[in-house]
Amino acid sequence: MSPDLAPLAWTTLFAPLAAAALAGLLLRRRRALAAGVSVLGMVVGLVCTLFLLWRSLTAKEGEPTGFEAHFTWVAAGSFEARFGVLVDRLSLLMALVVTGVGTPIFVYSIGYMHGDEGYGRYFACLSLFAFSMLGIVFSTNLLQTFVFWELVGLSSYLLIGFWFGRDSAVEAGKKAFMVNRVGDFGFLCGILLLYYAVSTLPGFRDMKIPDPASPGGLDVPNALDFGHLARFYRDPALLPLLGGGTAALAAVLLFCGAIGKSAQFPLHVWLPDAMEGPTPVSALMHAATMVAAGVYMTCRVFFLFEPFPGALQVVAWIGGITAFLAATIALVQTDIKKVLAYSTLSQLGYMVMAIGLAGATAGMFHLTTHAFFKALLFLGAGSVIHACRTQEITEMGGLRKPMPSTFWTWWIGTAALIAVPGTSGFFSKDEILAAAADPVHGSGPLLALGLVTAGLTAYYMMRCTALTFHGEHRGHGHPHESPAVMTLPLWFLAVPALFVGWLGFPLLFHGHPWFQAEFNVRGVEAQAGPHEFHLPLALLGTGFAAAGGVIGWLAFGTRRIDAAAWKERLLPLHTLLARKYFLDEFYLWLVRVVQQGVAEVSNFVEQNVLIRGVIDGLSALVKASGRSLRELQTGSIHTYVRFALAGTVVVLAWVLLASARGGP
Amino acid sequence: MTPVLAALPPVTVQHYLLLSALLFAVGLVGVLFRRNILIVLMSLELMISAANLALVAFSRVHGNLQGQVMVFFSIAVAAAEAAVALSLIIALFRTRGGVSVDDAAELKG
Amino acid sequence: MEGLGFYAFGALALVGALLMVTSRNPLHGVLWLVASFLGLAGLFGGLGAHFLAAVQILVYAGAILVLFLFVVMLLNLRPDDLTRMPSFSVRGGVGGLILGAGGFAAVVGAVVLGTAGFDREVSALAPLEAGAAELAVPLFRDALLPFEAVSLLLLAAIVGAVALTKRRLP
Questions:
Q1: Between the CA of residue C46 and those of A515, C4, C52, what are the distances in Å?
Q2: Residues A454, A548 contacting (CB under 8 angstroms)
């Protein structure tokens, strides 16, 4: 595994960009070609990633399992901004997720978007997104991450508001962008704070870091570079030089970016609205990859959080609250995509919570498994929407016979989401619960939250599945199975949804050789060594899930429990959940009243103090002085003579006084 | 008459200088406060003459004629200046119709 | 005797000056200035500058002031021209008054202070006869260049006066 392989990484990164450029600029009319080029871009990336991953895994003892290649983008005095590719097992894993989930989704889109006006534009935007996401994955430093962070936000905006004729879609795109902006602001503040705090330390500047480009040479320490920062933070002699408060604050601010991008509470409000976009977009961006970027980034800079339990607490609790909150809202949703959206929010909360519990490996594991089964579920939902021409599960039902592929793959995805033992989701969720149960870094309340949420997850998925596929068809049309171009990707994704978890299972016994050192993530001491499989915990988790699932099935599958009656009884609670805890209303109030109020005050100050006071005052001053000075030029001889006389008197007095003082 | 004469203090150089100063001041007041250009001009001549008086007094004090030569030239220059100034006044009178200083107060033309 | 001359001619000079400055009619003003200059000529004589006394009467009073007289006559101001406009201008009102009084006091005071050491009696000074012959020496020997230059100056003044007052013939 050496830097010679860097071109493969560069290709992975830029192939989608090339595809986007071609599709966007040249091939808008040639729809099939645009789609083909975009799919090709992803496939190329997938192949390169697989090759690099294989090389990394088969690296011999002592050989490096990753490399870094960069070039200087901006050099200004002591500041240097770099652009490069960081290839290690963490980034390769993430790249595999992006390309591995992305390729089937691109193929699926060919069928789903067939006949749409903006077919070419769709693929151009989607490829642009792939490029932006891979930019985050392979980023070597905070600045590069931020740049691609924004690009990803742009792609999301373009794709959410893809059907721009629809007001709701346009509004959703704006909402996503603006809410993300808030998180990005914190992110940027964190980067700046960290850069300022670290780069001014002499201890940092004196570090001896080998240059990846020239063996034997020394690199210049750069306070944005991940590797350099990790080296600094890992050094027990250097880290104390950095103020604890500053460092913890910087870490939390960086996490703000993750709060925004990964839709954690309180910035989660954009994700359900983002379902306005085409379903493949929801699958790719808002389930598998973009929203996972926050989790990935937090893992990448986990070393910033490690020394500060306080920061980790913040992360863990935000994750836990998000997981629980979103699951409760999912209970009452009737739009199939909204159910999946809140489910995604909930699972993202699990991932973030895991990181906060010092279980970064668990978080990444769940990210991987979730990407596959959630994408599968979304594509399945797309298939259903395509067939039933509605998104409301109240108008569906009875789809088992007409749509077998969709039906069975949906059940596979659901099983993984609920964490049925043996599925991928089972292993990853169990890892997270294990982290919560850990005696050193765990948290009892969060473990309880995780278990309850697992139960809720099972309930709402059973509800959704029962209403969507089982019983009699309540709609008007005659739904039929989707074309092969859409069902093949479903089956393609079903395989990893079931089996990716097993890749982690052996690791439970062998101590995660995958994720160890090159992760730059040390994880918890307990996870560094061989990890035991907690049977009691696994049973407990499964028990909660089973309970929730059974209740859900009884209520909606077999109608043993009267769901409508319960809804009547718990109407206030139901309303609270259906209105999403009134958070949207709260934010609207915040903007309308608070922000607008501040703007009004600022405007008032600007108008009166700055413009009337300073600027007009200045001009009035000039005018007044001009007017008074003009009096000098009267043309009257008398005035001139008087001034001349006055001047003469002054000079005379001066001379006399001078001679009197310094005279003989 | 002689008692009046005896009562007056003896005339010193300072007397001449004081007189010169008084004449100068009178001329100055005229230049500053009169509107009629001719009066202003004449006040100016008065000021020059006052200076001439002082020069002559000092010439007598020092015992040489430098001061008086100076006065000679002063008078010559005053003549030239009066000629030109008066022709200006005539030109002014022809265009403005008045000899008030205010008539020449506009800076245009 | 010396004192009498000084006081008499001095009074003439001063009174003439005052009356000139306060006269409404410029014609009266010229005549009073002539009287003042006669007084001045007498003072010159008292100081021994006989040639200059003559020149003062001949040139200053006799030529320059007569020229003034000509111009006054030429302008032919009607009496109502004189009565119409206020002849004193106190532009700036009180400020100007203060300025004038201040200037007056300053000049006088400066001279008084500055000439404290000149309290020798004139009669006690060495006599200085300055007739034409005595004045000719420094004038044509030491100050020859200025003398010639002044003649050029006078030429320039003549040309200027003619140019300024020329009328275009129709």
A1: 124, 10, 11
A2: yes
Judge if ipTM > 0.95.
no
| B101 Cβ neighbours under 8 A, 6+ residues apart | A636, A637, A638, B34, B35, B36, B37, B40, C89
Q: For the purposes of burial, counting CB atoms within 10 Å of the CB of A312, is it exposed (0-12), middle (13-18) or buried (19 or more)?
A: buried
**pTM across the whole model:** 0.68
List the single residue in A639, A645, A649 with the smallest CB-CB distance to C91: A639
A/C interface, count of CB pairs below 8 Å = 18
Is C87 a residue whose pLDDT tops 60? Answer: no
- The answer to whether A276 and A166 have CB atoms below 8 angstroms apart is yes
**H/E stretch holding A321:** helix A309-330
As a whole number of Å, the CA-based R_g of chain A is: 31
**Cβ(A506)–Cβ(A415) under 8 Å?**
no
In DSSP notation, A644-661 reads: HHHHHHHHHHHHHHHHHH
Predicted confidence (pLDDT) per residue in A136-183, tens digit: 999 999 999 999 999 999 999 999 999 989 899 999 999 999 999 999
Average pLDDT per 10 consecutive residues for chain B, totaling 109 residues: 64 84 88 84 95 92 88 95 92 76 64
Fill in the amino acid letter for A645: L
User: Which of C122, C151, C152 would you mutate first to test chain B, the one with the most B CBs within 10 A?
Assistant: C122
Q: Which of A633, A641, A648, A649 to mutate to test the interface with B (most CBs of B within 10 A)?
A: A641
Residues of A in contact with C106 (CB under 8 A): 649, 652
Residues of B in contact with A637 (CB under 8 A): 40, 101, 104-105
